[in-house]
Design a protein that fits this description.
The protein is 8% helix and 49% strand. It has five helices and 20 strands. It has an 18-stranded antiparallel barrel. The radius of gyration is 25 Å and the shape is globular.
C-alpha cells in the first residue's frame, strides 16, 4: 500500500509539474458598443424601402490572449452582433437567428480573429499566422481603401536597422470551393505583399506593394462588384485567373510639429477575366451571358493638421479615378480595385457618408472605399474646454468621377444596396458635429450628429433609384465599454 501511495504521489507531482510547465497567462480585452437614436437617410435602397427612423443596436467584441511567453501567444477574438434590437432578420447571420427579437435566442457569435504570434528563436523576426486584421499602410488618418479587414494569412516582420523595417505576407481572402471534387476551378485568390517602413527625423515613408492571382470563381468578383455595376454575377465555377497588383506609399511629415502632414497614394489593377452574368435584359433568349471584366485605377488622399492646446483644425481631401464612358459595356472599369468588405473600415474621412462613425452607428451611407469619387473637407477636431469632454465639427463636399454616360446608359443597374455609384454630375454635402465624453476610465459616451445633402444629375439618371429630394439626418448616441 505504501508503494502504491508513493507511486501515486510521484505521478501527481509529475502531472502537476507538467501542468505548470504548460501554463499560460490568459488576458481578456474587448470593446462593447451600445448605440441607438434617430436617423432619416432620405435615400431608398434597391427594394424601394426606406430605413427605420429609430434604431437600437449592440455589438460585443471580445478578445482572449493565451500568452505563453514574450515570444509566443495565441489569440482568438469573437464578435456578437451587430444586433438590431427587435430584429428577426436572419440574412445577416447566414440563416441563423440574429437574437435581437423577443427571447433573444440567436446563432450570432462570429469568429473575428484566430491567430498565433511567435518569434523565431534567437532573432527579431516575428510571425503571425491565422485569421488576423490586415490594414494597408496609410498616413493621412483616413484609412486605406485597398484592404482594412480581417483576413487569413501569414505575416512575417523584422527590423533591419533603426530606420528600416520589412514586412512580408501571404493572404488568402477567398477560396470559394475548397473541395473541388473532380472539377478544378480557379476558386482561390492568393496575394503576396511587401511593406518597407522607413523612419527619419521628423518624417516617415512606407512604400508597399501586393500582387497575386484572382480566380474568376473565387468569390472576389461577387464581393467587389455586387450586382456588379453590370449585372448579377451568376457563376463561381470560372476557370479563368486574373493577375492583380497594387503599389502605393504613405508619407507622414511631423518635422514642424504641431503642424503635421500626411499623404497616401496607390495604384491598383485587376486584369480582365471572363465571368458569367445573369442576363438582366429579359428580351434576349439566354438567361446568362459571358463577358470579360477588369479594372484599374488611382487613389490619392492628404490631410494637413495643426494641433492647438484646445483643438486641432485641419484640411483634408482625396481623389479616386472613375469609369470612363462605355467602361461598363467593354468591361474596362476605371476604379481602384479593393478587398475591403462592408465589415471592414475602408476609407473613412467622414462619419455619416463614409464609415468613420465611432461604433455601430449609422454611417457609410454613400461610400466605403472612396473609389470613383473626389472630395475636400475642413474640420476642427478634439475641441475641448472641459476635462473629459471634446467635440469635432466637420464640413465636406464630395463628387463622383465616373462618366455620366454610364448612368445614362445603365441607370438603376449601377446602384445597389451599398456603395453608391456617383458620376461627375452627382455631389454630396456633409456636415458632422460629434461629441465625446469620457464618463469613466473604461466607459465613453458619444453623440453623433450628421447631415447629408445628395444631388444627382437628373438628365443622366432619369428616374434614378435614389430619392435625393429628402436630405439625410442622424442624431445617435453610442456607449463604448473598453476593457
Amino acid at each position: 500500500m505504501k508503494r502504491i501511495t508513493t507511486f501515486l504521489l510521484a505521478l501527481a507531482m509529475c502531472c502537476s509539474g507538467a501542468a505548470a510547465a504548460l501554463a499560460v497567462d490568459v488576458k481578456v480585452s474587448g470593446v462593447w458598443d451600445f448605440a441607438g437614436g434617430w436617423e432619416q437617410t432620405g435615400f431608398k435602397d434597391v427594394t424601394g424601402k426606406e430605413n427605420d427612423n429609430i434604431s437600437a443596436r449592440e455589438r460585443l467584441r471580445t478578445q482572449i490572449n493565451f500568452v505563453a511567453s514574450e515570444q509566443l501567444q495565441g489569440v482568438v477574438a469573437f464578435e456578437i452582433g451587430t444586433l438590431n434590437w427587435g430584429s428577426s432578420d436572419s440574412s445577416q447571420f447566414y440563416g441563423g437567428a440574429p437574437g435581437g427579437a423577443l427571447d433573444s435566442d440567436g446563432i450570432n457569435v462570429e469568429t473575428r480573429r484566430a491567430y498565433l504570434d511567435w518569434t523565431v528563436p534567437r532573432t527579431d523576426v516575428t510571425v503571425r499566422m491565422g485569421i488576423q486584421n490586415m490594414v494597408a499602410p496609410f498616413a493621412a488618418g483616413m484609412g486605406n481603401p485597398v484592404i482594412s479587414d480581417d483576413v487569413a494569412g501569414i505575416v512575417v516582420s523584422s527590423p533591419i536597422n533603426d530606420m528600416l523595417g520589412v514586412t512580408a505576407f501571404w493572404l488568402r481572402p477567398y477560396d470559394a470551393n475548397f473541395d473541388d471534387g473532380d472539377e478544378h476551378y480557379a476558386d482561390e485568390t492568393d496575394l503576396f505583399g511587401l511593406v518597407l517602413p522607413i523612419t527619419g527625423n521628423g518624417w516617415s515613408l512606407t512604400p508597399w506593394g501586393m500582387a497575386g492571382s484572382v480566380g474568376g470563381g473565387s468569390g472576389y468578383y461577387q464581393m467587389a462588384y455586387p450586382d456588379s455595376h453590370l449585372a448579377d454575377i451568376a457563376d463561381q465555377t470560372s476557370s479563368d485567373q486574373a493577375f492583380a497588383w497594387w503599389a502605393g506609399g504613405a508619407l507622414k511629415i511631423d518635422l514642424f510639429d504641431p503642424l503635421t502632414f500626411g499623404m497616401d497614394a496607390v495604384y491598383g489593377r485587376v486584369n480582365r477575366t471572363e465571368l458569367t452574368f445573369d442576363n438582366v435584359n429579359t428580351t434576349l433568349p439566354d438567361d446568362t451571358y459571358t463577358a470579360e471584366v477588369g479594372t484599374k485605377g488611382w487613389f490619392v488622399d492628404a490631410a494637413l493638421n495643426y494641433k492647438l492646446d484646445w483643438a486641432t483644425p485641419g484640411l483634408f481631401g482625396w481623389w479616386g479615378s472613375g469609369d470612363k464612358a462605355d467602361a461598363l459595356d467593354d468591361g474596362n472599369l476605371g476604379r481602384l480595385p479593393s478587398l475591403t468588405t462592408w465589415d471592414g473600415d475602408g476609407f473613412y474621412p467622414t462619419s455619416f457618408g463614409f464609415s468613420g462613425g465611432a461604433g455601430p452607428t449609422e454611417d457609410g451611407q454613400v461610400a466605403l472605399t472612396g473609389a470613383g469619387t473626389w472630395g475636400v473637407g475642413a474640420q476642427i477636431a478634439d475641441i475641448s474646454f472641459i476635462d473629459n469632454l471634446s467635440h469635432t465639427l466637420r464640413v465636406a463636399y464630395y463628387q463622383g468621377t465616373n462618366n455620366t454616360e454610364n448612368a445614362r446608359e445603365h441607370g438603376d443597374a449601377l446602384n445597389y444596396d451599398g456603395e453608391m455609384y456617383l458620376t461627375t454630375g452627382d455631389h454630396v454635402w456633409e456636415v458632422d458635429f460629434n461629441h465625446k465624453y469620457q464618463m469613466y476610465e473604461n466607459l465613453t459616451a458619444y453623440l453623433e450628429l450628421g447631415y447629408l445633402h445628395l444631388s444627382m444629375d437628373k438628365d443622366a439618371w432619369g428616374d434614378n433609384i435614389y430619392d435625393s429630394s429628402d436630405d439625410a439626418w442622424k442624431a445617435q448616441v453610442l456607449f463604448k465599454y473598453s476593457f
